[in-house]
Amino acid sequence: MLYVSNKLPCPNKHNRNKYRNEAISEIVKLLEVTHGKTLILFTAKDDRDYVFKKLSNMGLPYKIMVQSSDSSQEHRLERFQNNVNSVILGTGAYWEGINIKGESLSQVIIFKLPFPVPDPITEYKMTNKECPLLEVAVPEMIIKLKQGAGRLIRSSEDKGIVSILDPRVSSRLKTAYREDTLASLPEKNSTEDILELKEFWDSIKGDGKHD
Hints:
Elements (H helix, E strand, L loop, with lengths): L1 E3 L11 H19 L3 E4 L3 H12 L7 E3 L6 H10 L4 E4 L16 E4 L9 H8 L4 H18 L11 E4 L13 H6 L6 E2 L2 H11 L7
Parallel strand pairs: 1-6, 1-7, 2-4, 2-5, 3-4, 5-6
């Protein structure tokens, strides 16, 4: 199932800490649904490290890990897979370069939509378009988002949740690219209600009354 938060402020440079802190509260609720078992993907190392520090100091009942920058990366991912209820935070290569099958990865949380960082090539492409956002930025974001969401289902037996915290694809904001973005993801069941999300999780785990 796909979950989209409709409660958070729209992320921008003016309310960065407000977004971070409200997103952390949402993350805690989502971790309670799956009892950990979660990969959290970030577009910026600063956000990743900020959230990691906050979550690590909250006394949560899950092992909280963060992406390593050295040769112990493979060992870090093995620890995440072997500790079924753990949580790992990552950016960069974690959007496309990890392959963890089974229950250990039952939820992928997208902290922010992965819009491209401005660079000379992107800026050049945008100057030649009538609508740079919809013709350049959004298509590139969707490709990256699909890669990140794709970390969830790595085998025919895998089940779980993709959660997007960024409200720009929620029904509340109704952005011009909302429908195309959501349609690009393989999860066709979607909700903006955490209680409904929990019912779904309980049903696929065999703990609920729903089929």
